[in-house]
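stage 2 :: seqdesign
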């Protein structure tokens, strides 16, 4: 029996009527949002439910939306896979105020490394994580480099010639021939 997206949506909304919302298809993947308070239970239910059987955490990552209001600037995205029916689902949780959410390392051991990377680059804290510390950046780094509040480049550098990076004004000018663009 194939696992239909309508079945996934109905089982999850029945179990968590106030904890999930905004079900939609994005690039052929069922995507929905869960509240920070419900996300752990939602992931656990999707993993343990005998119909859903999302038995693999493909990825977990952070996202920074600097233009959103303060209560939804950060999100964690979970990509889950049901190997039996070959179905994938994306679950997003927008974090209110402080960027922190419950760990899912008790459900998926592989989440340990993914949560550490998300903490390292975005500063999102995973409550209950057994070893939440930087994984790629040095401990002395005080910022979280994937946050969009930091400039991409040091504007004060004098050793860098933009011509070598394809950033000269001529690259953006439209050449015209005979008055046509």
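stage 2 :: out
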């Amino acid at each position: 029996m194939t696992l239909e997206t309508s079945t996934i949506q109905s089982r999850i909304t029945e179990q968590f009527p106030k904890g999930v919302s905004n079900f939609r298809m994005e690039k052929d993947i069922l995507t929905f949002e869960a509240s920070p308070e419900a996300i752990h239970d939602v992931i656990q239910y999707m993993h343990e439910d005998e119909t859903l059987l999302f038995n693999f955490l493909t990825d977990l990552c952070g996202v920074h939306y600097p233009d959103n209001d303060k209560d939804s600037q950060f999100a964690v995205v979970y990509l889950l896979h049901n190997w039996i029916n070959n179905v994938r689902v994306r679950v997003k949780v927008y974090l209110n105020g402080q960027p922190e959410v419950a760990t899912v390392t008790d459900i998926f051991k592989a989440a340990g490394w993914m949560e550490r990377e998300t903490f390292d680059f975005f500063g999102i804290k995973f409550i209950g994580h057994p070893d939440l510390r930087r994984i790629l950046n040095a401990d002395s780094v005080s910022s979280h480099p994937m946050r969009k509040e930091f400039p991409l480049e040091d504007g004060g550098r004098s050793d860098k010639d933009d011509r070598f990076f394809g950033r000269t004004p001529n690259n953006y000018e439209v050449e015209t021939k005979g008055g046509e663009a």
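stage 3 :: structure notes
- The helical segments are 5-15, 39-48, 111-122.
- The domain at 5-151 is CATH 3.30.460.80 (Beta Polymerase; domain 2).
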